[in-house]
Each structure stands twice: as C-alpha cells, then as structure tokens.
Design goal:
With about 100 residues, this protein is of the alpha+beta class. The protein has four helices and four strands; from the N terminus they run βαβαββαα. The protein has a single domain, classed as Glutaredoxin (3-Layer(aba) Sandwich), CATH 3.40.30.10. Helices cover about 40% and strands about 20% of the residues. Strands 2-1-3-4 form a four-stranded mixed sheet, sandwiched between helices. Strand 1, helix 1 and strand 2 form a beta-alpha-beta unit. The chain is globular.
Length: about 100
C-alpha cells in the first residue's frame, strides 16, 4: 500500500498535513506501507495530480498494491481518522458490523 501526499509550496496547511502523515505512517512501515510526498509543481507531481484528479492541497491518496485509489482525504487529516483508513485498507481493523456479528 502507498500513501501519496500532494502538497504545494504556497499551501499554508500542507506542512501540518505532512507532519501528521509522517507520524502516522511510521507505525505501519512493517506492514509494507510506503509514503511519498508529491510536490504538484514538479513534472511528476503534475502528471500524478492530473491522473488522480487532485484539485486541492493537501490531498492524501491511499493506493492498494495495484496502484488503485482506495481512499482519499482532502485537507489536513485527523490523525485517528487516517489511522482508521490505513488499518481498514490493510485489513487490520474490522468493520463495526463485523465486530458485532463476530465475522
């Protein structure tokens, strides 16, 4: 799984988002989670932001192992919410109904 963080040098919220994402992702490296910061003004950033239709900064995109988008967070993420999304994608967190029904 990959976490892409799209940032812009003119974005006042991007440094806070980057700090949160780096702190959260660190705990999931042993599960194969990769993190990459994408600066949208670079050639790679321009190509990827077009491919994933990124319109606002910061934007976090979670990709599965086939590079398919599974989750998206626009703006500065809530740390617990981001952890939940990562754990859900990794299969580490059971859904509410699964916990109730024992699946």
């Amino acid at each position: 799984m990959k976490i892409l963080l799209f940032v812009s040098s003119h974005c006042p919220h991007c440094p806070k988002a980057e700090s949160i994402v780096k702190r959260v992702v660190r705990a999931y490296y042993e599960h194969g989670v990769e993190f990459k910061k994408i600066r949208v003004k670079t050639a790679e950033g321009n190509e990827l932001s077009s491919r994933f239709n990124v319109m606002s900064m910061p934007t976090i995109i979670i990709l599965d192992d086939t590079n398919t988008e599974t989750q998206r967070v626009v703006g500065v993420p809530n740390e617990n919410n981001l952890k939940n999304k990562i754990e859900s994608n990794l299969g580490l967190k059971k859904s509410f109904l699964s916990r109730i029904l024992g699946r």
